[in-house]
Each structure stands twice: as C-alpha cells, then as structure tokens.
C-alpha cells in the first residue's frame, strides 16, 4: 500500500533496528534450511509461536515469533509496511513509546492467536510466525492519528482516507478469519492480525485520553 498523505522521510532508530533484526533473522532461517544444522533449527523453532498446549511451546515465544517469517514475500511485505508507516508513527510517538507500542501489539496479537488456537482445537504442531500482528497495530495507529490522510492500498487500489482503510482491512481479516475458522486456505493467522489492531486500539485510546499521543489529521 502507498501513503499519499504526509510522509516522514529518513529512518528513525527503532524502525531501522526492527528492519535489520527481521531481515537478518529471515536470512539466518533461510540459510539454516539450506544447510540443516539441527542445533540451529532447534533454536529457530523455539522462537516460533506454538499453541500453549503444544510440547514445543516456550514462554518467550509470544515475544519472539514476530521476528520470524516464512517466505521472502512474507518478510518483505511486512518490512515494507513497517518502513512505510512506522517512520511517521515513531516520530509521532517518540522512539521509546513507539517500541513499547510495537511490542505490546505484537505480543497481544500472539496471545489472542493462542486463545483462538485453544478455542478452535487447532493443531498443536502448527506454529505462528511473522510481524503482521504488530504491523496491523501500526496501521491502526496511522488510521487513528492521521485519520484524514489519503492512502492508496495495493488491494483494493482505491485512494481512501486512512481511517476507512483500517476499517476495510480489519473487516476483510474478520471475514477471512471467520470463514476459514483459525486458518483460511492461505495459511494466514487472521486473528493475530485482528488481535494486533485490537490491542493497538485499546492502547491508543488510553494514551489519547492521557495526552501522551495526539491526532494530526
């Protein structure tokens, strides 16, 4: 998607380091799969998010899974969105609050995904990976703080105000999540996306009331 509203140039430190961490871990994962180092495979698997009842679950996984990705399309799309919207949100919030927001959205998305796995009886051996929950938190933040900025989503390619774009994205995720139970045919954890947006909404509502963040449009 493309943001045709106010764009902040430059690369603030948290966004920069998140981009580096995610890409480096994806490269390490890809190289490990090519050479198959059993010890390193075990370490990387322990960073993915498994259902709480799974023998592979570890307590740190809700915080580490968001730095793991599948194919290159997965990591590139998430990092492109982080770059596109994260720059503005980090400058709006400040680096420390932005990192707090990003991590809380990602962890909250993971916990909600685990709850859905439990309620739907999902396989104990299918992990969740990716920064998409945290990324949906960023999209939600842009939609709340820059409501009237015009953005051009890739799908659908229609210019719309940020606040309505967020509503459309979340409605699509809800439809796909409900129609496909936990995972639809595209193997996407749609409820993790919704979870990141929900946690971001609740956190931003609190910060807006406290005057810790402000709307810009």
Task: Give a brief rundown of this model.
The chain has 217 residues and is mainly alpha-helical. It is 63% helix and 3% strand.
Tally of helical runs: 8
**What is the CATH fold-level name?**
Rhomboid-like fold
**CATH homologous superfamily descriptor:** Rhomboid-like
Name the beta content range. under 5%
* Secondary structure: number of strands: 3
Shape: globular
Taking strands numbered 1, 2, ... along the chain, how are they ordered across the largest sheet? 1-2-3
Largest sheet report:
3 strands, antiparallel
Tell me the Rg in angstroms.
17 Å
Q: Architecture, according to CATH?
A: Up-down Bundle
Helix content: 55-70%
CATH class category label: Mainly Alpha
Class by helix and strand content? mainly alpha
The residue-averaged pLDDT reads: 90
Task: Considering the chains and any ligands shown, give keywords for the structure.
Rhomboid-like fold; 8 helices; mainly alpha; 3% strand; 3-stranded antiparallel sheet; 217 residues; globular
Overview of the molecule:
With 217 residues, this protein is mainly α. The protein has one domain: Rhomboid-like (Rhomboid-like fold, Up-down Bundle), CATH 1.20.1540. The protein is 63% helix and 3% strand. The chain has eight helices and three strands, in the order E-H-H-H-H-H-H-E-E-H-H. Strands 1-2-3 form a three-stranded antiparallel sheet. Helix 4 packs parallel to helix 6, helix 5 crosses helix 8 and helix 7 packs antiparallel against helix 8. The radius of gyration is 17 Å and the shape is globular. The two termini are 19 Å apart. The mean pLDDT is 90.
């Amino acid at each position: 998607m493309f943001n045709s509203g106010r764009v902040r140039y430059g690369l603030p430190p948290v966004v920069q380091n998140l981009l580096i961490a995610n890409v480096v871990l994806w490269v390490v994962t890809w190289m490990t799969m090519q050479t198959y180092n059993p010890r390193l495979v075990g370490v990387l698997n322990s960073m993915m998010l498994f259902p709480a009842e799974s023998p592979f679950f570890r307590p740190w996984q809700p915080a580490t899974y968001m730095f793991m990705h599948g194919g290159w399309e997965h990591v590139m799309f998430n990092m492109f969105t982080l770059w596109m919207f994260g720059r503005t949100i980090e400058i709006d919030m400040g680096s420390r609050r932005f990192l707090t927001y990003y991590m809380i959205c990602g962890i909250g998305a993971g916990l909600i995904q685990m709850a859905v796995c439990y309620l739907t009886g999902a396989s104990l051996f299918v992990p969740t990976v990716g920064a998409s929950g945290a990324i949906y938190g960023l999209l939600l933040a842009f939609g709340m703080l820059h409501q009237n900025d015009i953005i051009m989503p890739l799908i659908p390619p229609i210019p719309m105000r940020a606040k309505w774009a967020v509503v459309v994205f979340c409605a699509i995720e809800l439809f796909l999540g409900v129609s496909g139970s936990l995972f639809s045919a595209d193997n996407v954890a749609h409820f993790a996306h919704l979870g990141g947006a929900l946690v971001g909404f609740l956190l931003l509502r609190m910060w807006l009331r406290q005057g810790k963040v402000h709307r810009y449009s």
